[in-house]
């Protein structure tokens, strides 16, 4: 990785001879940030303060020889993965073997030839860079696999429930000939509930899939924030009316935002839906927004059941256990808030929650007002 100053990494030289250090610095400082220490204690202080990519280590030192220093380094959990190249005048086979046994990755004999030093250091730095890239890739793959497994679980379990319920209710209605109007309306209401749940789930799954496309750029456009909130309210009006919940849009009619309109609508729809789900009948869900210091700040508040403080860090993940039934028994998948986080972070913004059990919650997201 190329650092901000144009250098390709950090190297530490531990040698009790300043002349040796100067030779190494003069050879490597053009391409790397070179730090140095004359004593083992000073070297450990640097290693704990600065992320060192490679250690060049003298063997013959008065306080602690290089072999012992390397052994101590490799025993430290935080430092053990730093590669070590020994630089020493001891070139007998026994010393070379001992160096590798203590954990060194290479061995350079004195007097140091600058071309050899530069070549060996370059090789190790490139190996370190490749190793980090592989580690980052593995972490990302592990994360994606976990999310993929969660989504397959949602599709296989959570979607099967409402679709199966719709199928069963339709078959029941077809088999029943003497049902009255009121009883029929009850079953139609249940069918609508199943269908709404399945539709919302599919929309979130599709939106999540879009965010996973690395090449999918944000489609920035200017739009009136209050207008899209009104559209989201209309979509959710039936769910709110069923619990006699008031949806309040307090956003100024002249607040114009530049962002991906569809993604922001998805976030607002999910936050409003979440507010309705966890608000008791006759409650209210309020959405506010303001522009300040180059950011759009949107707040969706409810006076519902609230969230326990220990769950704040989990609700934006996809785990099924993070999803709770609503105040009217509404079921969820835990995908909605996770999707909100993904879409806001895609805008280089952030989302958080403030809540108190029994008093309600406030979800807040902020995004830059201009494209970055």
Summarize the SSE layout with pairings.
Blueprint (H helix, E strand, L loop, with lengths): L9 E5 L3 H11 L4 E5 L2 H10 L4 E5 L7 H10 L8 E5 L4 H9 L4 E4 L4 H45 L1 H16 L5 H32 L7 E5 H18 L3 E4 L6 E5 H17 L6 E9 L2 E8 L32 H12 L3 E7 L3 E9 L4
Parallel strand pairs: 1-2, 1-3, 3-4, 4-5, 7-9
Antiparallel strand pairs: 6-8, 9-10, 10-12, 11-12
Structural overview:
- The two termini are 22 Å apart.
- The protein folds into 3 domains: 10-135, Response regulator (Rossmann fold, 3-Layer(aba) Sandwich); 159-216, no CATH class; 218-372, Heat Shock Protein 90 (2-Layer Sandwich), CATH 3.30.565.10.
- A hairpin with a 3-residue loop joins β11 and β12.
- The protein has helices at residues 18-28, 40-49, 66-75, 93-101, 114-158, 160-175, 181-212, 225-242, 261-277, 335-346; strands at 10-14, 33-37, 54-58, 84-88, 106-109, 220-224, 246-249, 256-260, 284-292, 295-302, 350-356, 360-368.
- By secondary structure, it is α/β, with parallel strands linked by helices.
- The strands form 3 sheets. Strands 2-1-3-4-5 form a 5-stranded parallel beta sheet, sandwiched between helices.
- α7 packs parallel to α10 (335-346) and α8 packs parallel to α9.
- Helix content is 48%, strand content 19%.
- It has 10 helices and 12 strands.
């Amino acid at each position: 990785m190329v650092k901000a100053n144009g250098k390709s990494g950090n190297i530490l030289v531990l040698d009790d001879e300043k002349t040796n250090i100067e030779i190494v610095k003069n050879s490597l400082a053009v391409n790397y940030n070179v730090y140095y220490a004359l004593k083992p204690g000073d070297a450990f202080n640097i290693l704990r303060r600065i992320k060192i990519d490679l250690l060049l280590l003298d063997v013959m030192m008065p306080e602690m020889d290089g072999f012992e220093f390397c052994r101590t380094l490799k025993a430290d959990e935080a430092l053990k993965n730093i590669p070590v190249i020994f630089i020493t005048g001891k070139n007998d086979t026994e010393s070379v073997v001992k160096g590798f046994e203590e954990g060194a990755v290479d061995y350079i004999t004195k007097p140091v030839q600058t071309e050899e030093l530069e070549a060996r250091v370059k090789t190790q730095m490139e190996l370190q860079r490749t190793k980090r890239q592989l580690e980052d890739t593995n972490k990302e793959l592990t994360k994606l696999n976990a999310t993929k497994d969660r989504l397959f679980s949602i599709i296989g379990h959570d979607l099967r429930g409402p679709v199966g319920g719709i199928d069963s209710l339709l078959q029941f209605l077809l088999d029943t000939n003497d049902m009255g109007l009121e009883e029929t309306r009850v079953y139609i209401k249940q069918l609508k509930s199943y269908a709404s749940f399945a539709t919302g789930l599919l929309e979130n799954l599709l939106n999540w899939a879009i965010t996973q496309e690395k090449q999918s750029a944000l489609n920035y456009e200017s739009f009136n924030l209050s207008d899209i909130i009104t559209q989201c309210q209309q979509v959710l009006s039936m769910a709110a009316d069923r619990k006699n919940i008031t949806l309040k849009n307090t956003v100024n009619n002249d607040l114009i935002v530049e962002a991906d309109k569809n993604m922001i609508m998805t976030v607002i729809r999910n936050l409003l839906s979440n507010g309705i789900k966890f608000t008791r009948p006759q409650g209210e869900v309020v959405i506010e927004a303001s522009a300040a210091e180059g950011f759009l700040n949107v707040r969706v508040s409810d006076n519902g059941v609230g969230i326990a403080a220990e769950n704040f860090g989990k609700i934006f993940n996809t785990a099924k256990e993070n999803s709770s039934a609503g105040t009217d028994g509404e079921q969820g998948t835990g995908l909605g808030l996770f999707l909100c986080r993904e879409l806001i972070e895609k805008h280089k913004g952030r989302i958080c929650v403030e809540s108190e059990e029994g008093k309600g919650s406030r979800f807040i997201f902020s995004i830059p007002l201009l494209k970055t």
